[in-house]
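Recap from last week: sequence in, structure out.
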Amino acid sequence: MDESARKKPSMDVALMKRLIDTATKRVPADLVLKEAQILDVFSGKIERRDIAIKDGYIAAVGLDFPAKETIPLKGAYVTPGFIDGHIHLESSLVSPREFCRTVLPRGTTALVCDPHEIANVLGLEGVLYFLRITEDLPVDIFFTAPSCVPSSPLETAGATLGIKELETLLNHPRVVGLGEVMNYPGVIQGERGILEKIALALKKGKRVDGHAPGLMGEELSAYVAPGITSDHECVHLKEAEDKLKRGMYIQIREGSTAKNMSALIPLVRGFGVSRFMLVTDDRHPQDLLEEGHIDFLLKKAVYMGIAPNLAVRMVTFNPAFYFNLPRRGAVAPGYIADIVVTKDLKNFFPLYVIKSGEIVAHEGKLLKDIDPNLPEPPPPSFHVKLSDRPFSIPARGEKVRVIKVIPQQIVTQTEIVKAPIKDGEVVADPSRDILKIAVVERHHGTGNVGVGLVSGFGLKEGALASSVAHDSHNIVVVGASDKEMLTAVTALKEMQGGLVVVKGKEVLASLPLPLAGLMSLEPIDRVAQKVKDLHHSAQQLGTTLENPFMALSFLALPVIPSLKITDLGLVDVEKFSLVDLFVD
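Predicted structure tokens:
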């Protein structure tokens, strides 16, 4: 079956006739799965039947089909291939090809990706590069066109995506929607620019994904009214219920940083499954290797008491239906033969993964060759300009705002504390778990540096720095001293992007990320080991966070409450404005 047909399935008369002839047993199937216990996502029932596959499609479900090849399943369970309805591939720290090599044997056969990370660094060119390097993969990768590049006017991004660029993307057959509309204050205030983007997507028949953490009541109604139909930012049950009642689809997020499943799963039991999806949003390399991808979410949902048929529907038919991915998400006649065979509906470990009728993985081992080599990527956008003392803060008051990190969440809190002052300057005070944090602009060489204070990292010494800093991906650095922070940023500049841990003048651990300063070109196992080394080094310096770099990456995101920092300074997200470090 040719690639264009698999990516955008269409039925011509000849194919229809071959499927009919297979279903009526006039011609043999290409492949028959014998004695399968099929989970029907429509009725929720499990029935023991054979599955006849022809030309990459399911021709029929029944008994005793003639076949060129037969696999006896002996009562193993069969589900549709898994679909992640919202993920940022960049957060895996590996290339899209390496990501697919990792998740395909775990049963993932399709992804809907929001590439706004690479878009904020490289603009339209970066998204088109992603489209090129994913067009020939045995995992169907669809995209949403990033709606907020930059995510706000409160930061300096590497690029801007306007109406012209979005129209180019929305015309692409694998772009299935407008990416999460993070500028919810702009929507509520009726800003013309963001409304024009929503109108363009709707005109082209594409979905509009939302991003409105904590939004409820009348403001939520104003946000939903233009046609925004999903949200993956719900943290609390009441918030998710309010969004559900206003017609939104709820994408229950269980990623490497934000874990919302335990809080939101009760809503599925109360309201039914039809408007829910399970998504990852961000998935880190160690978690992909040690826990899995969508298979892990299924396992966790069932452990929390969700019936397997409901859990499976949330990662198969529901995302396929929502994003209008034709002929995907079910084991039924006329659907693409994307199939997972598993021993049980508790652990969901795939015995076989079948993609478009072809066996591509067996017992966790990839059988389909995926070339890891990539065409030459665009330049990484790394132009850093620093003064001699970029992180100094002259004392201008006795009380300061401090960003308080909340473990396993991307939201933060605001603390007002007595300023740690020495020789007329605000300094880090590790004894009080108060560190300096800074964001250094890295795209245009502006010299912009926003400096503030943060608690919750627990570092006693040293510094951590990263060029992965959502969403504009400037350099974010946290440290116990200005000198160590400068050493960390200098190391990143020399690497042209990555993650680094320093102590004094020594680099303890590092991971270069040459693809846009966001992704490695190495195999995932090597990347995971280097990340593990980074975490170990950070823990030696005193951090109490399980994943300090993931936490660090979200502290520069000025659309997630409540206090964040960008290259322009501290941001009060609820007021959507810059605020002074010092409090009167």
